[in-house]
Amino acid sequence: MNAVNIVDILKNLGESSGFAGVHWQQIVMIIVACVLLFLGIAKKFEPLLLVGIAFGMLITNLPGLTGADALFHSDMWFSAGGKIDYGEVLLHGGLLDVLYIGVKTGLYPCLIFIGVGAMTDFGPMLANPKSLILGAAAQLGIYMALILAIVFGFSGNIAASVAIIGGADGPTAIFVTKTLAPEKLGAIAIAAYSYMALIPLIQPPIMRALTTQKERMIKMDQLRTVSKAEKIIFPIAVTIITCILLPSVAPLLGCLMFGNLLKECGVTERLSDTAQNALMNIVTLFLGISVGATAVYSSFLTIETLLIVVLGLVAFCFSTAGGVLMGKLMCWITKGKINPLIGAAGVSAVPMAARVAHNEGKKYNPDNYLLMHAMGPNVAGVIGSAVAAGFLLAIF
Amino acid sequence: MMFSMAASTTTKYFSVSEGLLYALIGFVLVIVVLIVLMGFIYLLSYIVRKFSEKKKGDAAPAPAEPTAPELAPGSSGNIKLYNVDDRTAAMVMAIVADELEIPLNELRFISIKEINEEEK
Fold first, then answer.
1. Do B37 and A238 touch (CB under 8 A)?
2. CA atoms within 13 A on the CB side of A36
3. Most buried of A45, A347, B53, B59, CB within 10 angstroms?
4. B43: distance to nearest CA of chain A, Å?
5. pLDDT 10s digit of each residue in chain A, 396 long?
6. Is the four-CA dihedral A22, A23, A24, A26 of positive or negative sign?
7. pLDDT per residue over B72-87, tens digit each?
8. Cα separations (Å) of A263 from A145, A259, B113?
9. Structural domain boundaries of chain B?
10. Cβ contacts of residue A111 below 8 Å, gap of 6+?
11. Residue A16 to chain B, least CA–CA distance (Å)
12. Residue A289 contacts B, CB cutoff 8 Å
């Protein structure tokens, strides 16, 4: 019987462990993932998605998880030519590869939109249809970022994916990026969700810079009551009108409106409840971790990622400015009946942006209650960013 | 269809002037689509209003119903309560009215729902 060579055993264990082949970039990515986990858990920055994304990022960058041990194989998804062998993914892919199929096929963003639709009350927008114009103006950042990304030398598909961060809508950003620039999905999703969480810090200085104190103090008239019939007809008609005008918008807007119809029609309460809670939670779980897994160090730690992060911030700022400036214009046209602050809520990010507009208005006039007025542009922004996404998908 | 879509993207670079043009077209398109929707909503609310007015008009000749008892202050319309008992709902409404400094009978509550920490 051979004597057990302890040194050889330890050597083999050392060679098979992750420490043997660790890259410095992996250590950087682990630190980035831990920082994001800290922001999600301790600072509550969009925790439902950021915790999942950060954990996916952590697990995909751990040294030693290669070959059959790897949970995610970026080479299966981002190979030259863009061809994906789904049979290979199912046969030899890791857990996160299988979950990522839901991102790549557009399944998760669409299912999330069903949940978002089921949770959204379009009443404030139906009561004040002018808020749709604010929602449209607040998409300005998307197009400013598109121009800037092209100026910085990004290809059309990456520029479009970067630009959609300005829509301040996570599922929309993921839906566009998974089609146009899947290798940048991790960076773009992280930028989009981080900025959405930072809206209370990003928006107020822009809102204050572009409005006068007198404008910020404007009290708006109470909204009219919207009938049940209007709320039921609206999602059906929007689906017909927008999908005929812009077919590429159908997956996102169709699902959003389907979810809303479940909520409003009054006969599918169980389905609406499932869409709002169980379905939304399950999909959020799968989406977060699989999107985070795409942030592999080799494609994440690049100058492009830094540019994406900066351009994302620029997009957010321009979107806020676009909404506020349109709010000012409407304030002037209506002779002071519209508080321009509600324009900032047009950037989507429901309901965070509406809350920011409300709080900002309340600071200058404690009697001001802008929340419901801001919800109009806020939900209009969701439709606006979906339309913008449809345009980008159709062109790039 | 989704599977083929995933593999159909090609890398193409654009000049700044092309980028400007696409940005302009895209922005105008969003505005146009949302203005069309705005017009539709105005039309929809007009039709619904006319329809309900007509319905009310048709119902007018019918024998007058006995007058409903007057609503107590603060009980305007119906309110839906989700996992909230009457006592708590009354308390919430009173607090909101007090905070806003608006009389309770000038406020209309549509629903009150208890939100658990996990649901946030």
1. yes
2. 30
3. A347
4. 10
5. 456 688 888 887 777 777 777 888 899 999 999 999 999 999 888 888 889 999 999 999 988 777 777 889 888 887 766 688 889 889 988 999 999 999 989 999 999 999 999 999 999 999 999 999 999 999 999 999 999 999 999 999 999 999 999 998 989 999 999 889 988 988 898 889 888 888 989 999 999 999 999 999 999 988 888 999 999 999 999 999 989 988 988 999 999 999 999 999 999 999 999 999 999 999 999 999 998 998 888 888 889 999 999 999 999 999 999 999 999 999 999 999 999 999 999 998 888 899 999 999 999 998 888 999 999 999 999 999 999 999 999 988
6. negative
7. 444 456 777 777 888 8
8. 35, 7, 15
9. 15-59, 80-119
10. A255, A279, A283
11. 36
12. no
CB A377 within 8 A of CB A135: yes
Question: Of A91, A98, A96, A86, whose CA–CA distance to A61 is shortest?
Answer: A96
Task: Return the residue of B nearest to A132 by Cα.
Answer: B34
Q: Is B82 helix (H, G, I), strand (E, B) or coil?
A: strand
| Six-digit token string for A147 | 């121009």
Q: Please, are residues A136 and A159 in contact by the beta-carbon 8 Å criterion?
A: no
What is the spatial distance between Cα A213 and Cα A233, in angstroms, rounded to a whole number? 39
Distance from CA of A159 to the nearest CA of B (A): 9
- Report yes or no: A361 and A152 within 8 Å, Cβ to Cβ: no
> What are the DSSP calls for B50-67, one per residue?
HHHHHHHHHHTTSPPPPP
Which string of DSSP letters, residue by residue, matches A339-362?
A: -GGGGGGGG--TTHHHHHHHHHHH
**CA A196 distance to own-chain centroid:** 8
User: What residues contact A187, with CB distance under 8 A and at least 6 apart?
Assistant: A295, A300, A304, A305, A308, A309
Nearest CB to B12: which of A151, A156, A392? A156
What secondary structure letter does DSSP report for B110? -
Residue B68's region, left for phi above 0, alpha for psi from -120 to 50, else beta, is beta
Nearest 5 degrees, angle CA B71-CA B77-CA B79?
115
What CA–CA distance (Å, rounded) separates A317 from A263?
33
For residue B80, which phi and psi values (nearest 5 degrees)? -95, 130
Q: Which residues of A touch B3 (CB under 8 A)?
A: 84, 86, 105
At A234, the amino acid letter reads: F
User: Least CA distance to A322: which residue of chain B?
Assistant: B27
Task: Say how many C-beta atoms besides its own lie within 10 A of residue A13's C-beta.
Answer: 11
Residues of A in contact with B99 (CB under 8 A): none
Phi-psi category of B118—alpha, beta or left, where left has phi over 0 and alpha has psi -120 to 50?
A: alpha
